[in-house]
Amino acid sequence: MHPRHKTILLPCSLASAHDRVMLNLRRIRSLVMNHGILQVALDLLDLDRAVKIAQEAVEGGADWIEAGTPLIKSEGMHAVRTLRQQFPHAVIVADMKVADTGALEVEMAAKAGADVIGILADADDAVIAESVRAARLYGVKIMADLINVADPLARAQQLESFGVHIICAHVGIDQQMTGKESLNLLSTLSGQINIPLAVAGGIDASGAGDAIRNGAEIVIVGGNIVRSADVMGSTKEIRRGMNTGRGDVRRSRSKEEETHDIFMQVSAPNITDAMHRKGAMNGIVSICGTVKLVGKAVTVQTFAGDWAKPVEAIDVGMPGDVIVINNDGGTHVAPWGELATLSCIKKGISGVVIDGAVRDVDDIRALKYPVFAKSTVPNAGEPKGMGEINAEIRCCGQWVRPGDWIVGDESGVVVIPAEQAYEVARRALEIRKTEERIREEIQRGSTLAQIAHLEKWEKR
């Protein structure tokens, strides 16, 4: 056990203060023995869903319950009051992200039943001071969130001197999507301050073990619990990671490898959602049905069935690439067939996308190879040699550059600009997790309209 785990102090609610103090003393011993505190962040919009998920998380081993910032913005202090009523013996965290009027917002959350109140570490010093003074008055604790702080160690040391009770090493969701990690921020703080450290941002079971080993006393988990189809099971898995204090041994991967692996896990609709409904090609279908296509584009501009450049592109491409062909809109003659497909398989090309027609469909389907096209036609073209390889082209309504990522499945094909690929992949994975949770709630008897609260969130 990390020696600093003995320093944690749990806050006391305004209601039944003596009873809460005695309860917290008992919980301190339990939580220390269990290698830290697991805080579930309810970053949801609907309170009813949040309460149900919180109950499952508590049953799985979560210690603290957080009314996340989106939940507070959606439901107000009613969210904090409801969590206090539903979980009278739990520590309730209100992630207010206080940036101004520190005393007012701390008072508001404390009176609603919060034990720990989140403020922004980069708020003005006067806001910090007012928040701390209000915390003393109302018997609550202040957790300062280091999100977006330029010099987190220096600011954390300042905050400790101001009387802040907990420092949170937090990398926000948008930052995580670009590859920043909260565990790296935690490492810069560990052993440098004397108040408890929390960590938040993309933590899973393996990361929870790493966090405990690196000095975190509070592990805050949002999406990997609340978006899980099995909230209780996911919470138990994270709790086990914390108890062992060991993360999985992971092979070091480049961003390109991680991007490829994620794109293999997510669907084309997940990706277009992550791109704000952009990037999808028009009028194109999978010739072989259930296949998956992921790779970087080798682009080909050809004309009316001229198959010279499409076939030459096989030699230009590298294993894992995708050949993307603009046949100048012609669907009466095919620039692609079974022999070219077989050549791609032997070269290791991941698949082919054609703004035009394909032939030899029966043979290609027998190969179960990812070929996407607008139509099928038996007519073959001729190798005239017109066009270009690896120039920017327009294919099925989308501009495609060499090196852009191409992902295809039965729903269609999506083009992802190379410079955005890693971020889009990470966002698409989060969308898939959200859908998994919604799917589970539908299986339990809810409906999509009920889950989404469509009437509440319709544009006025």
Structural notes for this entry:
- One of its GO terms (biological process) is L-ascorbic acid catabolic process.
- Keywords: Carbohydrate metabolism, Lyase.
- One of its GO terms (molecular function) is 3-dehydro-L-gulonate-6-phosphate decarboxylase activity.
- The chain is of the alpha/beta class.
- The chain has two domains: 3-244, Alpha-Beta Barrel (TIM Barrel); 258-423, Glucose Oxidase, domain 1 (3-Layer(bba) Sandwich), CATH 3.50.30.
- Helix content is 43%, strand content 19%.
- The chain has 20 helices and 18 strands.
- It has an eight-stranded parallel barrel with strand order 1-2-3-4-5-6-7-8, surrounded by nine helices. Strands 9, 10, 11, 12, 13, 14, 17 and 18 form an eight-stranded mixed beta sheet that branches.
- Strand 10, helix 15 and strand 11 form a beta-alpha-beta unit.
- The longest helix is centred in the C-terminal third of the chain and has 23 residues, at 421-443.
- The chain is elongated.
- The two termini are 53 Å apart.
- Mean pLDDT is 88; it is low at 1-33.
Count of β-strands? 18
Tally of discrete structural domains: 2
Question: Which blocks of ≥5 consecutive residues have pLDDT under 50?
Answer: 1-33
Overall shape: it is: elongated
- Sketch the major β-sheet: 8 strands, parallel, barrel
Number of helices: 20
Assembly form of the protein:
single chain
CATH topology of the largest domain: TIM Barrel
CATH class of the largest domain: Alpha Beta
Q: Please, what is the CATH homologous superfamily of the largest domain?
A: Aldolase class I
Strands in their spatial order, largest beta sheet: 1-2-3-4-5-6-7-8
Give the second-level CATH assignment, the architecture of the largest domain.
Answer: Alpha-Beta Barrel
GO molecular function, one term: 3-dehydro-L-gulonate-6-phosphate decarboxylase activity
Keywords: Carbohydrate metabolism, Lyase
InterPro entries: 3-hexulose-6-phosphate_synth (IPR017553), Aldolase_TIM (IPR013785), Bifunct_HPS/DMK_prd (IPR017120), HPS/KGPDC (IPR041710), OMPdeCOase_dom (IPR001754), RibuloseP-bd_barrel (IPR011060), RraA/RraA-like (IPR005493), RraA/RraA-like_sf (IPR036704)
Pfam families: OMPdecase, RraA-like
